[in-house]
Design a protein that fits this description.
By secondary structure, the protein is of the alpha/beta class. It has two domains: about 170 residues, 3-Layer(aba) Sandwich (Rossmann fold); about 35 residues, no CATH class. A six-stranded mixed sheet has the order 3-2-4-1-5-6, sandwiched between helices. Helix 2 runs parallel beside helix 3 and helix 5 packs across helix 6.
């Protein structure tokens, strides 16, 4: 047991907007790039992080291009190397990836879609990943990041549902609680941890902050 007190922050950044986000298409593990709006959002996130009093010591990202491009923009502005891992990917959505709600109904999954929209923890897309499996790999990735950076601020750039699972973990809340949390594209959330001799305390100090965005390409993002 260490006698040291170590402070650690995780800055969670959801990737910028993609054309599939705008069209309401399920993305999951499908590799969809940022669009022009998303690239501008990434630039604004980077400038926001550059203005912090305590600069990050590391940046980790999902390996999917929408997250990786957002993270690379931050990496260049902060001049910090980027580390990517498949374990920070979005939840895999199986047969629904690439489809919008109307197309899911068209393929005969209308009843399952309504159940999914009401309770996405219990009802999953055909051939999709369970939320428990996603949570396990996200917690594993977070633990590896902790071991690599025992203190300081670490940026994690990833996806909506998987970042919400980390918020649940910070709150000691059951995973279905994530259905009551929303993270916008290019939003910033901050988790704070303190490792003490008798254990770890943790909490959420900022959630879904988009004040750095305001207007991109002339349209309000709120």
């Amino acid at each position: 047991m260490t006698s040291e007190v170590r402070n650690r922050r995780f800055i969670l950044v959801r990737h910028g907007t993609t054309d599939w986000n705008s069209a309401g298409r399920m993305q999951g593990h499908t590799d969809v790039p940022l669009n022009d709006e998303g690239r501008e959002q990434a630039r604004r996130v980077a400038e926001r992080l550059k203005s912090l009093d305590e600069q990050p010591v590391a940046i980790w990202s999902s390996d999917l291009s929408r997250a990786q491009e957002t993270a690379l923009t931050i990496s260049r502005v902060l001049d910090i190397p980027l580390q990517c891992t498949v374990d920070l990917r979005e939840t895999m959505l199986g047969s629904w990836e690439g489809l919008n709600h109307a197309e899911i109904v068209e393929r005969g999954d209308g009843d399952l879609l309504q159940k999914y929209l009401h309770d996405s923890y219990t009802f999953r897309p055909p051939n999709g990943e369970s939320l428990n499996a996603m949570w396990a790999r996200m917690l594993g990735a977070q633990d590896r990041i902790r071991k690599a950076h025992v203190e300081g601020t670490v940026v994690i750039v990833a996806h909506g549902s998987c970042l919400r699972s980390l918020v649940c973990a910070a709150l000691d809340a059951p995973l279905p609680t994530m259905r009551a949390i929303w993270l916008d594209n290019a939003s910033i959330s901050i988790l704070h941890e303190v490792d003490k001799p008798l254990g770890r305390t943790k909490g959420v100090v900022l959630l879904n902050d988009v004040s750095h965005l305001k207007r991109v390409t002339g349209a309000p993002l709120e």
